[in-house]
């Protein structure tokens, strides 16, 4: 934070390795509750996302030892993509893509600055500050919070290719060498999960870009056995507080009702990008007819 006067109380959190700074002795969880109590909106589980259980990975039989199987923490990466707001830049003060819109370093913040303080400020490629509304700060109902330790923070002006290159391309490269990966997009409704994962014909997202890379490399025969075949399944998980998770198989011929487990999902063989994109488009269409009243949702890509 660059604000000097009055100095807001901040809570600092880290994504692994993560330890709250001494100054942040206030429990971050309790500090974020009051504002949600005011709005009545279910709080997005950012704490849980940023404080994952340590993952254990076990090589499968016949699996080559791989660099990513060595260190547990290296296997888990947490990226943050900040969605641009739709209002004209001159009118919106909710997100600052960088220092340009935050008060300058070493500068005393004026009252006007504080009123226009963006709610989310990118501090660096791995850190953001979530600024509480001024009224909540003054009444001490909420505090500003610094979230450190992201693998990378994508500011609002990031384009689909930026996300793909940093997040997905390494996983596709690993996949082509025979390793499995899981990518999960998480966020409340409207935060850009679908846009990031699927995109649009003009701005394709992670899934179409990954399919193109996979089939391009297959065509180029880069490190790939010509006999290799690919299968695709597509499904949606609905998770609602207090209810059992539901898994919907979104493949064309699959039953529309929910599945009990992902092990019973259908898989279809795909032999071209066009094949795969047709199936994905069908899945997206089918998704929109499935019930969607969950506040916190996710989109998954599994490469195996
Ligand atoms: N980075 C972005 N750049 C431009 N537009 C975006 C971006 N992210 C999201 N949008 C737009 O915001 C709207 C909501 O995004 P999207 O549908 O991807 O949200 P979602 O998280 O999938 O929501 P839901 O959980 O309700 O399905 C869409 O119109 C989408 O095009």
Structure, explained:
Strand 3, helix 3 and strand 4 form a beta-alpha-beta unit. The protein contains eight helices and 14 strands. It folds into two domains: 143 residues, no CATH class; 145 residues, Kinesin (3-Layer(aba) Sandwich). The N terminus is likely disordered. A five-stranded mixed beta sheet has the order 1-6-5-4-3, with no helix packed on it. A three-stranded antiparallel beta sheet has the order 10-11-12, with no helix packed on it. Strands 2-7 form a two-stranded parallel sheet. It is an alpha/beta fold and 304 residues long. The longest helix has 17 residues. Helix 5 packs across helix 7. The structure holds adenosine-5'-triphosphate. Adenosine-5'-triphosphate (ATP) binds next to helix 6.
Question: Notable features of this structure?
Answer:
304 residues, Kinesin, 27% helix, three-stranded antiparallel beta sheet, globular, 2 domains, single chain, five-stranded mixed beta sheet
Briefly summarize what is shown.
The chain is built from eight helices and 14 strands. It has 304 residues and is of the alpha/beta class.
Strand content: 15-25%
Distance between the termini: 42 Å
Task: Give the count of structural domains.
Answer: 2
Bound molecules: adenosine-5'-triphosphate
Q: Which H/E pattern describes the elements?
A: EHHEEHEEHEEHEHHEEEEEHE
Q: Can you tell me the residue ranges where pLDDT is under 50 for at least 5 consecutive residues?
A: 1-9, 16-39, 53-63, 65-72, 87-94, 97-109
Helical segment count: 8
The biggest beta sheet reads: 5 strands, mixed
Q: What is the annotated CATH architecture of the largest domain?
A: 3-Layer(aba) Sandwich
Strand order of the largest sheet: 1-6-5-4-3
CATH class of the largest domain: Alpha Beta
Task: State the CATH superfamily name of the largest domain.
Answer: Kinesin motor domain
Helix content: 25-40%
Strands, total number: 14
Shape: globular
- What fold name stands as the CATH topology of the largest domain? Kinesin
Radius of gyration: 22 Å
Given the helix and strand composition, which structural class is it? Answer: alpha/beta
Mean pLDDT: 71
């Amino acid at each position: 934070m660059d604000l000097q006067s009055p100095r807001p109380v901040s809570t600092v959190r880290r994504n692994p390795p993560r330890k709250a700074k001494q100054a942040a002795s206030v429990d971050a969880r309790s500090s974020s509750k009051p504002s949600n109590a005011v709005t009545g909106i279910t709080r997005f589980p950012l704490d849980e996302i940023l404080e994952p259980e340590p993952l254990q990975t076990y090589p499968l039989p016949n699996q080559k030892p791989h660099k990513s199987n060595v260190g547990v923490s290296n296997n888990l990466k947490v990226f943050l993509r900040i969605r641009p707001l739709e209002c004209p830049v001159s009118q919106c003060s909710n997100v600052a893509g960088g220092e340009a819109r935050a008060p300058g370093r070493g500068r005393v913040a004026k009252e006007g600055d504080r009123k226009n303080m963006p709610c989310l400020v990118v501090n660096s490629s791995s850190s953001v500050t979530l600024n509480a509304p001024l009224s909540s700060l003054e009444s001490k109902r909420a505090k500003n919070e610094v979230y450190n330790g992201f693998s990378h923070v994508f500011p609002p002006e990031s384009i689909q290719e930026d996300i793909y290159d940093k997040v997905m391309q390494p996983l596709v490269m690993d996949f082509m060498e025979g390793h499995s990966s899981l990518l999960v997009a998480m966020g409340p409704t409207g935060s850009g999960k679908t846009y990031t994962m699927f995109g649009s014909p003009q701005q394709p997202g992670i899934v179409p870009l990954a399919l193109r890379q996979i089939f391009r490399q297959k065509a180029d025969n880069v490190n790939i056995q010509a006999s290799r075949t690919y299968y695709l399944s597509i499904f949606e998980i609905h998770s609602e507080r207090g209810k059992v998770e539901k898994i919907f198989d979104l493949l064309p011929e699959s039953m529309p009702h929910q599945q009990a487990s992902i092990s019973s999902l259908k898989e279809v063989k795909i032999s071209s990008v066009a094949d795969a994109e047709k199936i994905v488009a069908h899945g997206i269409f089918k998704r929109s007819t499935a019930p969607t009243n969950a506040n916190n949702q996710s989109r998954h890509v599994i490469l195996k």
